[in-house]
Amino acid sequence: MENDKGAATVICNFRDQKYLKETLSSFLRHGSAPLRFGMALSLSCCASLQSSIQSAQLNISSKREGLGQVKSLIARTGIPSITTSPHESLQKGNWVKLICGASFEDVADIRNLSLVYTLAGVDCIDCAAEASVVSAVNEGIEAARAIFPIRRPWIMVSVNDNEDLHFRKAEFDPDDCPLDCSRPCEIVCPANAILGESTPSGLKGGVLADRCYGCGRCIPVCPFDRIRAITYIRDVTTTVELLKRDDVDAIEIHTNGRQASAFEELWNGLGDSINHLRLVAVSMPDVKDLTIAAMSTLYSIMEPNLHCINLWQLDGRPMSGDIGRGATREAIAFALRLVSASGRPKGFLQLAGGTNAHTVDGLKRERLFQTTTIPEILLQRYLKVKRCLQYHLVHKML
After folding, report:
1. Is residue 202 very low, low, confident or very high in pLDDT (cuts 50, 70, 90)?
2. 16: how many CB neighbours lie within 10 A of its CB?
3. Kind plus residue range of the DSSP H or E element containing 36
4. What is d(CA 190, CA 260) in angstroms, rounded to the nearest whole number?
5. 157 has which bridge partners?
6. What is the DSSP string of 177-246?
7. Quick check: pTM over 0.85?
8. For 174-206, b where at least 16 C-beta lie within 10 A, e where not — what string?
9. Mind listing the pLDDT tens digit for each residue in 242-294?
10. 3-class DSSP state for residue 91?
11. 239-265: buried (b, 16+ CB within 10 Å) or exposed (e) per residue?
12. Whole-angstrom Cα distance, residue 52 to residue 191?
């Protein structure tokens, strides 16, 4: 997934108690070091999970025994104390955001991810702007805080002002699929969102909408061209109601950076609900020479009703879905231009879109990783967890 995703790709596979224990052990064994790069870091990489969870996943919330084991594990291992607020993490350059995915809506997985990463110390959990998803995030946070009295991360909801790659779902009619199809779509799906079973009457199954986050990998591999992408725009009225809840702290608006009218319509539609927030983030792709002008236009739209801090998410290579070195080059190049650009509007900068395990090395080569002279640039704590965390969820835990 971002592998779509957004920055450091973290995988999380909660298939059984063993995986959960390994996941927490991986975080706790290293203390705070892999989670917080430190004050010297300047650019932020969004942590993404790619969801490759199997159907026999662990639902932590319903397993008293499982929670007991987690609590026992933490008691034995210890967990680093986190005293800084999310706002202070932004200022110090050690902010970490867990991306559950703008379109990922599997509430059981989202709850489990929120539990684990709250214990890990993330500053923010970014999720779909859907009431049941937000509730699942809150349940995971509260379950974590019942295990250990850790500070609460901010909850962010993601919305879009127009068609956007992050806001789409794959769709096909399984009745149209030939019985002898090898189903490459099912094989390449990183979220296990496509299930198919051959029966005498035809293929049964299809796309599991709550698990599909719109990566698009299935579309080009279909040998019969039967899969299509369905795009959608989050309803502004529903978003307003979410923002008025006392458990949503931030919003991320995805925009293409080229048509300010759609952004303005959404912003005006949000109205006074913005006053309930601690952070407003705008995610936009690189529009080259138009970038600074586009950012300035968007900021001028927000400024009269912006009463909290703001952040620009630099989506270098939206939904790139690649873990190779090449995927991160565009994101780093985007950041390089913005860091030195004059006339850039107020706001923290966060690197996303194509970021992965190679991003930090790339930033070091450009001397951005250790830069301390640029106060408004974040470098998210690089969540470095290997096999246990292999889950797109955004997996988009982007």
Report:
1. low
2. 13
3. none
4. 33
5. 127, 251
6. S-TT---HHHHH-TT--EEEEEETTEEEEEE-TTT-----THHHH-TT---EEEE----HHHHHHHHTST
7. no
8. beebeeebebebbebbbbbbbbeeeeeeebeeb
9. 999 899 999 999 999 988 999 999 999 999 999 999 999 999 999 999 999 99
10. helix
11. bbebbeeeebbbbbbbbbbeebebbbe
12. 5
Residue 48 pLDDT more than 60? Answer: no
Three-state secondary-structure class, residue 358? coil
Per-residue b or e along 328-351, where b marks 16 or more CB atoms closer than 10 Å to that residue's CB: bbbbbbbbbbbbeeeebbebbbbb
Closest CA to 45 of 306, 342, 361, 259: 361
Per-residue 3-state assignment (H helix, E strand, C coil) for 359-375: HHHHHHHCCCCCCCCCC
Give the span between the Cα atoms of 372 and 85, in whole angstroms.
20
1: tokens are 């997934």
Domains, the chain: 7-165+232-396 (3.20.20), 168-231 (3.30.70.20)
Query: Do 7 and 48 contact (CB within 8 A), yes or no?
Result: yes
Query: Among 12, 37, 40, 39, which Cα is nearest to 26's?
Result: 12
Q: Which of 35-49, 98-112, 136-150, 293-307 is the least confident region?
A: 35-49
- Tokens 């974590």, residue? 144
